[in-house]
Amino acid sequence: MLSIIDHRKHLKDNVKDSQTSSEEMNGNEELHKLFQRLFTHCRADRLSSCGERQRLTKLAMRSCTDEVVLQWLRKNSESDAFSKLTDMFDFLKKHIDEEEKKNHSDDVHITFMAHGAIRDFMIPASCYLPLPTITDVLLYSPWNCVTSGLEYGIATGKLRPQHRVFSCEDKKGCTIPDDKHRPVNLPDHWNSLKKAGAQMVPNITVSPLSPDDDHDRVWKCFESLSAEHGPPGRNRIVIPFILPGREYESVPFSVVTLALSLVLLSSRFKATLHFSGCLGDNSTGPKFDRKYLQEQYACAIDNSWMKCSPEAFR
């Protein structure tokens, strides 16, 4: 693990790009105080406290240069949606601390694996990239589409748009043939939220994987393909959302990216974040406007399933 002095140096370097000289001094001092507590004094119960959440959101606002994101942070910093911010910070920091010991360069690709869904409302795409430490967030599934077996291809960078295979998830209840589940005008690139900018996109929620559940084969599939074809290489970091022995409700993906952005402030890394998870519409009320989602990137009809062709690993 890097020393406190090393972390302070990285904090200065990472915050410098997004602040004026006077803001740097104030921001760095606050960052130094927070991370010194986290590295040397904090216990798990303190990390989950409201006070630590407020300090984290304050640091995010000081380090953020996007006015749209700043408004979103101010509006939501005290909301229930942000209640898991410090838990996610602690979870992600343990992973990043371990990865800093490895022979990665300063620019890395991080794959976050989780169960996912879209639901209920929209947010500006830029809110998924709240700080400069995350340079882009890439989504692989069309909106309103579930996925299977993409994890290894995403984590290794081997998955390409031509490897997408679509079919019907509900073989008994759906009468639409498999080939009709492929979205029309499907782009030949992945959904970059950086390029989407302030464009409104669905709220993504994530929930943990359950490797001990025989019906949840996401992590087992990744491990199997890693054993067969080799693990992800240098500069590729995999973070499975696994919380052994804990019941955990869904979390907004925007809170995950905010927590990761803050963790990266104390590291040497800048990252492209790859999301490996489903994006089916689980809204409790009206569903999202599919015409709009089709224009933003692509949107599948109900019961659509995207898988990876075997050619991706040959």
Quick tags:
single chain; 314 residues; alpha/beta; 3-stranded antiparallel beta sheet; globular; disordered N terminus
If you had to describe this structure to a student in words, what would you say it looks like?
The protein has one domain (84-313). Helix 2 runs antiparallel to helix 4. The chain is 38% helix and 19% strand. By secondary structure, the chain is α/β, with parallel strands linked by helices. The chain has helices spanning 4-16, 21-40, 44-47, 50-63, 67-76, 85-99, 151-156, 193-196, 218-229, 253-265, 290-296; strands spanning 107-113, 115-124, 134-139, 146-148, 164-168, 191-192, 200-207, 236-240, 251-252, 270-276, 304-308. It starts with a helix and ends in a 6-residue tail after the last strand.
Give the SSE layout.
Elements: H1 4-16, H2 21-40, H3 44-47, H4 50-63, H5 67-76, H6 85-99, E1 107-113, E2 115-124, E3 134-139, E4 146-148, H7 151-156, E5 164-168, E6 191-192, H8 193-196, E7 200-207, H9 218-229, E8 236-240, E9 251-252, H10 253-265, E10 270-276, H11 290-296, E11 304-308
Parallel strand pairs: 1-8, 1-10, 3-10, 4-11
Antiparallel strand pairs: 2-7, 3-6, 5-11, 7-9
Helix pairs in contact: 1-2, 2-4, 6-10
